[in-house]
Each structure stands twice: as C-alpha cells, then as structure tokens.
C-alpha cells in the first residue's frame, strides 16, 4: 500500500506538470494565434511549421513516459521507468494496451513491480546498463517482455532460477510473479542468453 501511494503520488506530480503547461499555453494562446496568422498572411510556411513544432515540444512532459489511457498502468510504468532512467544508460519501452484493460492495480504491481525492479538492479551491475520493456494486448491476451543486460550466467530449469537474488541479482520476487501468472491461467518464460536476461509473461484477461 505504501508503494502504491508513492506511485500514485508520482503520477499526480506528472499530471500537475502537464496541467501547468496547458494553463500556460492557454494563457498565451491569443498571442500564438496572432503570430501564426501573421506568418500565414506572409505565406511563411516553414516558419509556421517550426512554430507549431516548438509549441508541441513545449507541451511535452518529460516525466510522462507512458500515456496509454489506463491510469493504473500509466502510473506504475511512469514511476518504474522513471526510476530506470535515473539509474541506467539505456531504457527502451513500448506499450500498446487499451484504456479499459481488465486487471487490478495490485496484480500489475506484483508482476511489473517485481520484474522491472529486478531488471533495474541487475542491469545496474553491468557495463551496458540496458533494459527494455514491451507490453501489448491482443485478443484477450496481455503480453509482457522485460529484458536487461546481465553479467552472470544463471542456470534455468523449467523456468525456475537455480540461484538466488542475493547471490546473483535475480530470483526473489519471481515466485510471487509466477503465482500471479497462475491466477490468470497464463505462463511465464525465463531465459538468460548472451548476457541478456529475459522474462516473458502472458496473461489471459
């Protein structure tokens, strides 16, 4: 609950930053429209395009990394990916899910919280400091794939790590994730190849 409150607090800060930018742009909108009308009158198409591009860049909120419309997933990923960007050199992500995704915030937190935090911690210990997160939904199936650079070799047997997080960097938390995956009658695949640790999860919603 404490962690969930922290995540929602972070998302509230993100939304407030976006709202402040909207208010500032609205306040100056008359001037912006006047300037664009002047450029249009002089047929300065390149300047108009540049002006509109500048307005778009101003409206971007650097803290809002994900905005898929699902408030629980947006909140969680904006927090976790924000932490990743502070600690790692390269963070890649792609999220394609509907806004009405039918999964609770608690379940998302157990799955993505454990997997992404494990990935960050393990990637921090490598030279590349790299992590990627791909989440997409299609035909009733929610798929998640988390990859990270990894400097150790792990033995994987039937998707169960034979070493513990205290020893190598992964392990704790995966048991909880596995239980949550079973709740949704899904499956989880764990692999470690060429110093890239990969966890794939699929849930049936």
Structure report:
The structure is a single chain. Helix 5 (105-124) packs antiparallel against helix 6 (174-183). The chain is an alpha+beta fold and 205 residues long. The strands form 2 sheets. Strands 1-2-3-7-6 form a 5-stranded mixed beta sheet, with helices on one face. The protein has helices at residues 2-27, 29-41, 45-59, 71-87, 105-124, 174-183, and strands spanning 90-96, 130-138, 141-149, 156-157, 160-161, 187-193, 196-204.
Short characterization:
The protein is an alpha+beta fold and 205 residues long.
List the helices and strands and how they pair.
Blueprint: H1 2-27, H2 29-41, H3 45-59, H4 71-87, E1 90-96, H5 105-124, E2 130-138, E3 141-149, E4 156-157, E5 160-161, H6 174-183, E6 187-193, E7 196-204
Parallel strand pairs: 1-2
Antiparallel strand pairs: 2-3, 3-7, 4-5, 6-7
Helix pairs in contact: 1-4, 4-5, 5-6
Distance between the termini: 24 Å
Q: Could you give the order of the helices and strands?
A: HHHHEHEEEEHEE
What is the percent of helical residues? Answer: 40-55%
Number of strands: 7
Count, helices: 6
As a percent range, the share of strand residues is 15-25%
C-alpha Rg, in Å? 21 Å
Taking the sheet with the most strands, its summary is: 5 strands, mixed
**Mean of residue pLDDT?**
77
Give me the side-by-side strand order of the main sheet.
1-2-3-7-6
Q: Low-confidence stretches at least 5 residues in length (pLDDT < 50)?
A: 161-169
Q: Helix/strand/pairing class, anyone?
A: alpha+beta
User: How does the overall form come out from the CA principal axes?
Assistant: elongated
């Amino acid at each position: 609950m404490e962690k969930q409150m922290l995540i929602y607090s972070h998302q509230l800060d993100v939304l407030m930053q976006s709202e402040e930018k909207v208010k500032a742009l609205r306040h100056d909108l008359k001037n912006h429209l006047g300037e664009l009308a002047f450029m249009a009158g002089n047929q300065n198409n390149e300047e108009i395009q540049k002006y509109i591009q500048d307005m778009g860049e101003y409206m971007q909120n650097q803290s809002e990394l994900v905005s898929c419309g699902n408030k629980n997933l947006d909140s969680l990923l904006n927090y976790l990916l924000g932490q990743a960007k502070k600690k790692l050199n390269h963070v890649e992500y792609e999220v394609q899910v509907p806004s009405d995704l039918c999964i609770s915030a608690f379940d998302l937190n157990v799955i993505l919280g454990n997997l992404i935090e494990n990935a960050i911690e393990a990637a921090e210990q490598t030279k590349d400091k790299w992590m990627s997160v791909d989440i997409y939904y299609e035909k009733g199936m929610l798929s998640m794939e988390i990859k990270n650079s990894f400097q150790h070799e792990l033995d994987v047997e039937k998707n169960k790590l034979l070493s513990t997080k205290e020893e190598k960097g992964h392990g704790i938390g995966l048991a909880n994730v596995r239980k949550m995956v079973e709740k949704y009658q899904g499956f989880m695949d764990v692999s470690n190849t060429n110093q890239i640790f990969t966890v794939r999860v699929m849930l049936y919603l």
